[in-house]
Design goal:
Length: 182
């Protein structure tokens, strides 16, 4: 990894002024992924996610340039995260209480900075502070590089989910135990 890389945790309040930069990294990371990856849709996603209790961002900067980030939040009892999950799943799999599952929503690195260990560093940093028993994320089935990375980082396939929003793609659900790894 790069010597001048700086990782920093930030709350939603501390992130307010960074939204434009977050969108820019998102668009860069997804430049070849099709028309659903738009600034407008992502701004709406951030606006919906940032107010959630426990929302947290970890940024990666090289000098002053934002080169990547990861964010997520704990799933509360009223979560819609599991809406659209394909059955069957084990009894209680989708039961949440705000302390059971941490959702990793985005893990993004600018294309020119990929394959340097930055995503792994961001992943490890955000999960290192979590106290939930498990983490979850969604990965597109055609994103082979991400699937291979998640496999090597200990994430387990746990089923399939198509979010209920219009035009949402099918995702593979991944789960990783975190509390027990301390």
């Amino acid at each position: 990894m790069l010597e001048n890389l700086r990782l920093q945790h930030q709350t939603a309040a501390e992130t307010e002024g960074l939204v434009e930069q977050l969108v820019d990294v998102y668009l860069d990371a997804h430049a070849d992924d099709g028309p659903r990856y738009t600034a407008e849709r992502y701004e709406q996603q951030l606006a919906a996610h940032m107010p959630r209790e426990g929302w947290e961002l970890v940024t990666a900067r090289a000098d002053e340039d934002l080169v990547g980030y990861v964010y997520g939040f704990p799933l509360g009892s009223d979560t819609r995260w599991w809406d659209g999950i394909h059955e069957p799943v084990p009894d209680g799999f989708t039961d949440e209480d705000g302390q059971r599952t941490y959702a990793v929503c985005e893990l993004l690195v600018r294309r020119s900075w990929q394959r340097r260990g930055i995503a792994r560093a961001l992943h490890d940093r955000i999960l290192s502070t979590r106290r939930e028993e498990r983490a979850t994320l969604l990965v597109r089935p055609d994103n082979v590089a991400a699937q291979q990375a998640y496999d090597s980082w200990g994430w387990q396939p746990a089923g399939w989910l198509r979010p209920t929003r219009e035009g949402a793609p099918l995702f593979e659900v991944r789960i990783k135990a975190i509390a027990s790894s301390r």
